[in-house]
Amino acid sequence: MFIQTEATPNPATLKFLPGRVVMEAGTADFRDAEQARASSPLAGRLFDVPGVTGVFFGYDFVTVTKADGDWQHLKPAILGTIMEHFMSGQPVMSGTETSSSKADGEEFYDTADEEIVATIKELLETRVRPAVAQDGGDITFRGYEKGIVFLHMKGACAGCPSSTATLKHGIQNLLHHFVPEVREVEQVA
C-alpha cells in the first residue's frame, strides 16, 4: 500500500491519501482522543501517536493536525498507523455513525429566506467544498440571518492561519456575487 502526503495551507495539518475511499458519505472531524476512540478505530489509533491533536476524514483522505513536534518525526508513525489500519480490514468508523456533520447542530434560518439559503447551499456544495477538500478540510452551512452566513470549518481549515482570508475574501465574495443579500460570512464552532 502506498500512501501519498500533501501539505495543506495549515502548517500544523498534513493530508494523507491512502489511495482508497476513507468515508463513503459525509465527513468526520475529531478534536479529542476520547471521542475519536469511541467513534473510529482509525482515529483512536492516530490519537495514540504523540503530538496528534486532530483527525479529519474526507472521501478519500485523512488529515492529521499536530500540536507540536516536527512532521519529519510524526509522519512515519502516522503513515504506519494508517497503513496498518487499512491492511487489517477494520472499518474506519465503528457502529452506525458515519458522519460527524450530524453533531454539528441544527441549521438556523428564517423560512422566508429558504430560496436564498438553497442558493447558498448549492454554491457551497458545487464551488466551495470541492476546493476546500483539496486542502484537506470541509466547510458546512450552519445558518443564515440578516445577510450573515454562518459556516463551520473542519479538518485542515479549522485553526488554519489563512482561514479568515478564505472566509472573508474567497467565500464571502463568491456568495455575495451570486447572492447579493449576503453581506458577511462568519465562522462558528
Order of helices and strands: EEEHHEEHHEEHE
Radius of gyration: 17 Å
How much is the average pLDDT?
86
Form type: elongated
Question: Residue share in helices?
Answer: 25-40%
- The low-confidence parts are 97-103
The strand order across the widest sheet is: 1-2-5-4-3
Question: Main sheet?
Answer: 5 strands, antiparallel
Question: How many E-type strands?
Answer: 8
The N- and C-terminal alpha carbons lie at a distance of 36 Å
Q: Estimate the strand proportion.
A: 15-25%
Structural class: alpha+beta
Query: How many separate helices?
Result: 5
Could you please describe the fold and organization of this structure?
- The protein is of the alpha+beta class.
- Helix content is 37%, strand content 24%.
- The chain has helices spanning 33-39, 41-47, 71-88, 114-134, 163-178, and strands at residues 4-7, 13-17, 28-30, 52-57, 62-66, 137-145, 148-155, 184-188.
- The strands form two sheets. The protein has a five-stranded antiparallel β-sheet with strand order 1-2-5-4-3, covered by helices on one side. Strands 6-7-8 form a three-stranded mixed β-sheet.
- β7, α5 and β8 form a beta-alpha-beta unit.
- α1 runs antiparallel to α2 (41-47) and α4 packs across α5.
- The longest helix is centred in the middle third of the chain and has 21 residues, at 114-134.
- Residues 97-103 have low confidence and may be disordered.
